[in-house]
Amino acid sequence: MRIPILKLHNYLLISIQIDLDDQTAIQFQEDLLSKIHENGASGVVIDLTSVDIIDSFIAKVLGDVVTMSDLMGAKVVLTGIQPAVAMTLIDLGIHMQDVPTALDLEQGLIKLRQELEE
Amino acid sequence: MEFQSCVNIKKEWDIVGARQLGRDIARKIGFGTVDQARIATAISELARNIYLYAGTGKVCFEALEEIDRKGIAIIAMDDGPGIKEIGQVMEDGFSTSGGLGAGLPGVKRLMDEFDIHSEEGKGTEIRVVKWLR
After folding, report:
1. Residue B55's domain spans which residues?
2. Residues of B with CB below 8 A from A23's CB?
């Protein structure tokens, strides 16, 4: 299974709408980094509105992809994390403090623009 | 014991299968969305541990019904190598697989009861319970 990555100007947009298994998550990590490279994207929004579970593995993959993209020079914002998912992550002891987040896609794009203008 | 159903963990996709079945059972018992997410996440961590460290095993679900309360029990069993230092794996941040080390201590925080039995060379059994509030 592949997660579609959409290009919008110099941004990449991803909406994860499936129950992520480990393989799909790793594949997504690779696909996103190649897309950033191909398109020279400066910003990425990963929307998690439809994701109803993030366990420690998926959290690690998401956290890593933010750091990896950052190394390549692209900013990533995670958006739409559900209340139940946020509560579960904190119970798990995963704080994701260095990961930029926003309430929804719209706020995510605003945040990206601000970060990139700085 | 109301009923018991199990998911065999043999391949990575079974982790998803186990948490989806567990979530369905939790919803039927009457758990809200936040507890459903906690339960599904706990199952995911337990199933992944089986897949990573033992290779194969199974995750079973029991709907618990007592006079004054209802709940769900999840039992994760394998015949893997067992855990040498249980104290160590219950520490936040300890991992031998390059993960976050959030697995077992996280599961303990997500659930209400947590029991672990492990024997080196024989396997591991973890039973966790969440009560409906």
Report:
1. 4-131
2. 12-13
